[in-house]
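Quiz preparation item.
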């Protein structure tokens, strides 16, 4: 890639990062749209339904740090491409499973692989955007999280209506495959500056690692509390509207999509 093309190529990298993040968010935030069908299909209690909806998040949390460390070593392109390919394979297994326990294990596995996008897509964007545009770029990248959930909330009920619950997991697998392909084809590292330093990463390095900084821990725990509250509400919104308020599955999923579009 020529040096003159680098400033324009950052928008390609941003688009790839958004696609990758949206693909795994479609699973985590879009699956609750078909919670009523999942509950009926596997004859689940409310608690068991909640456990299934949380399964992908468990996998994501368990592997985020490992994927981030691996991205530092081998780069975002390989991490996201391999991770989302694994997530797609796990979701295809989920589509073929006949038990709730096996489904839960597949969803944990999908989240464990898919968290590669959470860990590495932001890093890829930061590498291409300087401090004067980084906040805007990361804002767009983060916007893809609720956007992916909203799109999935609209599409998954249609897939279930057409071909059953398994079809929804095939759709989610396809989304992850698209994210993997986009990363494999579109992600590049920026060319180094004249002094050999990576482009746009000329800020002074931190004095100590982030895990030794109490402020990082406070910030992480505070934002985690906010995200946990959001996930708890979003996970049960469609199920509540369907079972307690008598909304159709499609209308409840539409409400979930509207909430997430507002968030985006």
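Solution:
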């Amino acid at each position: 890639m020529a040096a003159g093309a680098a400033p324009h190529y950052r928008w390609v990298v941003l688009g790839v990062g958004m696609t990758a993040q949206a693909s795994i968010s479609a699973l985590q935030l879009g699956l609750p749209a078909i919670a009523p069908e999942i509950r009926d299909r596997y004859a689940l209690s409310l608690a068991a339904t909640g456990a299934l909806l949380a399964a992908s998040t468990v996998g994501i949390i368990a592997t985020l740090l490992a994927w981030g460390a691996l991205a530092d070593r081998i780069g975002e392109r390989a991490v996201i491409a391999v991770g989302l390919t694994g997530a797609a394979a796990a979701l295809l297994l989920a589509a073929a499973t006949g038990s709730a326990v096996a489904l839960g294990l597949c969803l944990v596995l999908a989240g464990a692989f898919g968290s590669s996008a959470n860990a590495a897509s932001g890093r890829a964007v930061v590498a291409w955007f300087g401090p004067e545009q980084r906040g805007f770029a990361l804002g767009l990248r983060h916007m893809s999280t609720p956007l992916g959930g909203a799109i999935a909330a609209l599409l998954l009920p249609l897939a279930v209506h057409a071909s059953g619950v398994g079809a929804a997991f095939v759709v989610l697998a396809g989304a992850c495959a698209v994210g993997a392909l986009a990363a494999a084809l579109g992600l590049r590292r920026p060319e180094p500056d004249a002094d050999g330093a990576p482009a746009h990463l000329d800020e002074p390095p931190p004095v100590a690692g982030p895990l030794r900084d109490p402020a990082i821990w406070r910030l992480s725990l505070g934002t985690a509390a906010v995200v946990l509250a959001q996930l708890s509400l979003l996970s049960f919104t469609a199920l509540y509207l369907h079972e307690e308020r008598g909304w159709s599955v499609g209308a409840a999923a539409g409400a979930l999509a509207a909430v997430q579009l507002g968030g985006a």
